[in-house]
Amino acid sequence: MKKSKKIWGFEVNSIGVGTWGVGGWFKADTRYDEEQIEAIRHSLKKGQNHIDTAEMYSSGHSEEIVGEAIKGFDRKKLFIASKVYRNNATADLVPKATERILKRLQTEHLDLLYIHACFNEGDIKEYVAGLNKAQDEGYARAIGVSNFNLRQLKKAISLTKNPIVALQNHYNVMYQEEVDEEVKIYCAKNNITIVAYKPLENCESGKEVLQMAEKYDKTPQQIALNWLINQENVVTITKSEDKKHIDENLRALDFKMEKEDYFNN
């Protein structure tokens, strides 16, 4: 099992740190800041160097928590990604929004900047122009798209000056509609890493997942994560505020199922 993979030349842990719900949901909730900061730091100490956040998450407070959590760590060894939301997804506003993201994160650059979703297919040109401008101005080292289907991804690629290096979509063993074989083949051919979010969704309801969990003496969550990161061009992000769960999730890196057991893959 590959414990690390590359996103545009940067080596990241195959299981990254997701932050949806950290610091609140759609608005800031500071009640659990200390525990959440400590959980992220625990993840980093365990080698999870890829952190994924977004300006939408808790209205930017998630990014503030990440900014506090990364203090004292070697920034050069971290891969930090964030996303610009609908209200800032224009050629002129993306760089300005990214500058505010950097202030909340207390860092000088993003390693990866996404447009959070294809809110309007007719606006892809604006999204791409904004991403390119942010990268050209030094706010982000690489750019990507999130919640784009294959048609939308191809359109974005046709319009970009700088390479699109990542596609972040909803993808797991129980939900494969957004990342089918055609998407995986296209991304592999174009050096685009697939970043799977919600990797553990409904995994305990999957009959084959439960069978493999029993066979390999693993948790359903470890099987679900292992199934994803066994794929050549896929990394994932998962959120946990419990150190025990973080450690359990990371054990998904420590085994490899037999080839015939990688069901539906």
Care to describe what's here?
- The chain has 265 residues and is an alpha/beta fold.
- It has one domain (4-261): NADP-dependent oxidoreductase domain (TIM Barrel).
- It contains nine helices and ten strands.
- The protein has an eight-stranded parallel barrel, surrounded by five helices. It has a two-stranded antiparallel sheet with strand order 1-2.
- Helix 3 links the parallel strand 5 and strand 6 (112-115).
- Helix 2 (61-69) packs across helix 3 and helix 3 (93-105) crosses helix 4 (124-136).
- The longest helix is centred in the N-terminal third of the chain and has 13 residues, at 33-45.
- It is globular.
- The protein starts with a strand and ends in a 15-residue tail after the last helix.
Can you lay out the helices and strands and say which pair or pack?
Layout: E1 4-7, E2 10-13, E3 15-18, H1 33-45, E4 50-52, H2 61-69, E5 79-84, H3 93-105, E6 112-115, H4 124-136, E7 143-146, H5 150-159, E8 164-170, H6 181-189, E9 193-197, H7 207-216, H8 220-229, E10 234-238, H9 243-250
Parallel strand pairs: 3-4, 3-10, 4-5, 5-6, 6-7, 7-8, 8-9, 9-10
Antiparallel strand pairs: 1-2
